[in-house]
C-alpha cells in the first residue's frame, strides 16, 4: 500500500458515518460518566480522555467538511453565553481557575456541537438511548453488588449500598439527584425510541422498567417535580399535535397562560408541595446555600465572581461551605449559579439560552409530523425545571445535552421561522 493510498483510506475512515457514530456514543458516555472516570483515573485521566476525544472529533469534522451544513451552526445564545463566561476571566477572583473552567465548558460545548452536526435527531435519540441503557444497567449492577451481595459501600464511586432499604441509590453518578436526572432523561428517551419503533418492543419495555426503577430508587424529590412537568408537557404536546392548524395558535396561547398560572400557584403553595414530596431537608439545604450566596452577590451583582463551573476549593466558595457546614460543588440551582459566577447578565443569558431553545423545540414538536421532534422539547423541559434545584445544566453531561438540543432546534427552525409559525 502506497503512502497516498494509506492517506486516502485514513481519510475515508475518518469521514465515515460509522466513525461519527462511534464518536457520538463515546462523547455521550464520557459526558455522563465523568464522576466514575474521575473516581477511577482522577482529573488527569478525564482531561486526557476529553482532549483525545475532541481531537478525534476535529479529525472527523475535517474529513466530513463538505457534507456538513455550516450555515447557522451555532445559536447566538450559546455564543454570547460562552463568550460572557470567557470574558469573566478578566475580572474573576480566581482567574487561573476561571480560565480552566471556561476551557472545560468549551470542551463539552464542542462535543455537543459535534453530536448535533454529525447525527440527525433520531440517530441522536438512539445514541442517548444506547449509552444511558448501559450506564443505568451498570449502576444497578453495582448497587446490587454493594447493597445485596457484599453489603459494603463502594467508597471510591460514592455508592453507599442502600439498595436493601430501597435507596436512595447513586449508581455511577455520585449523587442520587444526578442519577434521578439521568434516569428521567433516559425514561423519556426510551419512550421516544418506542414511539418511533427504533428498538424492539421487548427492549423498549425492559429499558423503560430499568429507567423507572432507577428513578424511584434514587429517591430524588427534584426529579419527581421534573417528571411531573415533563408529563404535563407531553400531554400538552399530544393535544397540540392533534389540533387543527387553524386553532393551534390559540391553543399555544392558552397553554402559555396556563403555564404562568401554574408557576404562580406552585410558588404560592411551595411549602405544601415540599412537604408532600418529603423534601423539607433538601429544600433547607438549598435555602442555606442561596442565603449565603446572597451575602456575596452584592459585591459583584452585574458581572459575578468569574465563571468556574464546578466549585473549586477556593474563596468565596469555601466561605459558603464553612457557613453552611457542608461541601458543595454548585449552588444547587443553575440560574443562581450563573448569577453568582457571571452576574445578572450571565443569568439572563442562560435564561435566554434555555428559553429560546425551548420555544424553538416546542414549535417544532407541535408542528412536525414525526414524534422524534418531541425529544429535544422534552429534554429542555426537564433541564429548565431541574435547573431550579440543581446546576446540571452548567456542568458536563447536562450542559452538553442542552447544547445538543439548542443546536438541533436552531438548525431545524431559525428564529424567523419560529416567529412565522407562531403567527399562523
TrEMBL record:
Keywords carried by this UniProt record: Ligase, Membrane, Transmembrane, Transmembrane helix
Matching Pfam families: Wzy_C (PF04932)
Location relative to the cell: Membrane
InterPro entries on file: O-antigen_ligase-rel_domated (IPR007016), WaaL-like (IPR051533)
Topology of the protein relative to the lipid bilayer: Multi-pass membrane protein
GO molecular function: ligase activity
Sequence intervals crossing the membrane: 19-37, 43-63, 70-93, 99-119, 131-159, 171-192, 199-218, 224-241, 253-273, 338-359, 371-394
Ranges in coiled-coil conformation: none
Domain O-antigen ligase-related intervals: 207-351
Protein name: O-antigen ligase family protein
